Amino acid sequence: MSWPASVFAVLSLVSSSSASWGDQSSFYIMCGRNCWKLNCQAEESLQAWRETQSRSERMFGWECMDDCRYNCMWETVEEMEMRHGQVPQFHGKWPFVRVFGVQEPASTIFSLLNLCSNLYMLNWFIKTIPSTTPMFSVWVLYSLTAVNAWVWSTVFHTRDTNFTEMMDYFCAFSTVLFSLIAFCLRIVGTDNARTVFVSALFAAFFSHHIYSMAFVRFDYGYNMKVNVLVGAVNGICWLAWAYSHYGDGPHVKKGVGAILVLTGSVLLELLNFPPLMWTIDSHALWHLATAPLPLLWYQFAAGDCLKIARKGEFGIQKKIA
What we know:
Shape: elongated
Radius of gyration: 23 Å
Number of strands: 0
Helix content: over 70%
Largest sheet: none
């Protein structure tokens, strides 16, 4: 799921927690202050609030001030619709109704669908392709980064905190970068000095990026530029490779098909409309559209592994049962 996951990663980074019209409004700010004084400041009022909190909200870590922001968000939405006839965003996101403590129900469910489809196809890939086949370990490791990214996408959409946001961004970037690693190893081979050099180079770059974001400055603009650049290079490389290997077999056509469908689904992100039923927005629909793509991409990866082994492209000839 190299190219699909890399685009997922880039688009996951589009919605940052930057300031928006809704959370910058004086109405929202004053509402939050009043709610804090009323429900969160004094121990007695805080205890009274805790007694009304549901078990699911407590389990997902909703604190008193978080609840104030949530309730004030909806009061602000109502006020802004009355004043301006528009729905504001808050911290770079549309307002979503909270369901059993889950902050973005649709995106959470659709992220889980992507997680399940990747796990299913990873299991299929491991059972189908002999472990001695060239590129087998590369694709398995890549798949694990994709699975990990969808886990954190699910966690992040369930509960948006500084930590879950950071993990979602970092794990998403790991899929972008490892996709490019997979391409490079497809070119240079998987068992030589160049393999070590390429792997070390990418590991150093990833480590530097994570260190800069986590310990120097969490810069959304820088993060976006790096992800878009790496994602663009990755996509161009795989498309160029597919063009030059289009006659290798039907598996290449499946890979191209996955790329084309994925590219078309990206248009959903451009719609950027207020959530339907306060649950389903364009980002959630994009997550839904990407869920079946691993069915195509893993078949491409498997077919290419078998093709390498049969033709001995990496200087070895493998017997495929």
